[in-house]
Design goal:
Layout lengths: L3 E2 H18 L2 H15 L8 E2 L9 E3 L2 E11 L5 E14 L2 E6 L7 H14 L1 E5 L4 E6 L2
Antiparallel strand pairs: 1-7, 2-4, 3-4, 4-5, 5-6, 7-8
Length: about 140
């Protein structure tokens, strides 16, 4: 199977999960549910990006957009944490690329940083490794 971007895999997995629910295929419903939750684990967190999605139920996945909320923990010049900002991340298909939008307050121009991190993550090519039951990053863009 040809690797897809992480953004494309989100939509594919969600569509497969919904189809299994509609058809009553509980065996594959469980498999797609687990794959989708493991894909959520690839969404960046750490280095200031906190409380991101923990399961696919905290990510809104539609054919035309993937949306989730994060918080960013800011530091001052002395390296001490000094506050949070809340953001919504929206990833949309855009021809052969993706469009990433970051909402929320742009304290210290953090939205540019979050955009760069999320863009990189969602354009990576990933592939499901069936024997290992995990996603592998095939290509970093």
């Amino acid at each position: 199977m040809k690797p897809k971007t992480m953004a494309a895999e989100f939509v594919s997995c969600k569509t497969a999960l919904e189809n299994c629910i509609k058809s009553g295929n509980t065996e594959w419903e469980v498999r797609w549910y687990e794959r989708l939750n493991k894909l959520v684990e690839l969404i960046p967190s750490g280095s200031g990006i906190d409380t991101g999605p923990r399961s696919h139920s905290s990510v809104e996945i539609k054919p035309d957009a993937i949306r989730f909320d994060i918080e960013y923990h800011h530091m001052n010049d002395a390296g001490v944490y000094d506050g949070w900002t809340e953001h919504s991340v929206t990833v949309r298909p855009a021809f052969d690329d993706i469009d990433v939008r970051i909402s929320g307050r742009d304290r210290n121009q953090i939205k540019d940083h979050i955009h760069e991190v999320m863009y990189h993550a969602f354009t990576r090519r990933v592939e499901w490794d069936e024997p290992a039951q995990r996603w592998i990053v095939v290509e970093d863009t």
